[in-house]
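Quick check before the chapter quiz. The format below is the same one you will see on the exam, so make sure you can read both the input and the output lines.
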Amino acid sequence: MSDAYDHDEGRRAARLLLRRPMLTAERDGEDFRLVRKHARELTRRFAENLGYRLVVQPRVARLYKAGLGRDATRPLLRRGGDRPFEPRAYALLCLTMAALARCRDQLMMDELVGEVRAAIAEAGVDVDLDYPPDRRALYAALIALVEYGVLHERDHDGGGLERWVSDSRARSLLDVDRDRLRLMLATGVGDAVSPAALLDSAALPSAAGGARVAVRRRLLESPLLTTAELTEEQADWWRRGRNREQERFEELFGVELELRAEGALVIDPEDELSDVAFPGRGTAKQFALLLLEKLADRRTRPVDGAWRRVPVDVVTVELDTLAQEYGTYLNKAHREDRSALLSEVRGMLTAFGLVRLEQSTGDGSSGGEGAWLVHAAASRYRVEVTTVASKSAQVSLFDDPDAPEDGAPQDAAEADEEED
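Here is the expected output.
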């Protein structure tokens, strides 16, 4: 019983780190203590299976997740979680960390701003902290550092950080946690010749892991795996080990692998590992779900195995039809500007990997310029009942859900229940 209990605790701790790669004692309490209790096993588990480094200190735990390289679908979000960081906020976050590395352990807000200005000048970045949008971008960076425990606002007279956005005279006394500052960077920047090169080097799997580590990272970081998009080495490893990986992912992280002819999907029965819920609440998410169902029902010819092409004019007509049918649920901005709704829905579906925009060849020969490429996994979001031959059968996501098959009915997706 004790071994089973320890295993369950270790799995829960691993899930906590996947969801929040930096845990602190003061903010995360019991969760942090659980991670610290299983630190040795977790360090081994992440290193052997994902090539990730875990650092556990008396007051903080940091999992260095490598990410997927040049993937812009998971930006850092501002406080509140509804607005992504823009390039200037990212730049100011980096410049602020550089400034903090040479600051005193305790300083006033105006001192820190002065150090950031010096870092801006040294880097030659076109940022003006007297310009309101740039001040707001710096505020977003500072709040992110507060949330990570790098900065602590000890005392403020006249409004503190929030007031400083509109009034440079606002005062705030800040503590700098240097241990956490050192834990922020996931990879060294000294040898990077460009931002793209830095992202590529951070995303490289460990030398010992190769294809195994690369595929597992893709599954956990972007839970839609398309075999056709793997390298030859990765695809070969996946074909040989996919059934074994089902058991491993459930044992280590408590998630299910749904194997399909085109690849696999990762399903979290607890519905807590995704940083963004889909389907979920909000007009745009609901319209994205309804549109996805319409596009998945279109029987167009597959492109590259897992993708189907849908002309952009068809997408527009389908969304217009949905907007007319459910117009009362749209907010004022979306009612007045249908293109804004389309843009938001498109951004959401591309971020989830369910839609891509077809790249034009530039010579008019693509035959589908501006078309949407809809992934086979979109079929999973139908509000229907499908049948599956068996648990291990390699059923295509493009299979007709109405076609007669042997086997018991099975709900097409847990997500369908949320829409109901």
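If your answer matched, good. The longest helix spans residues 232-253.
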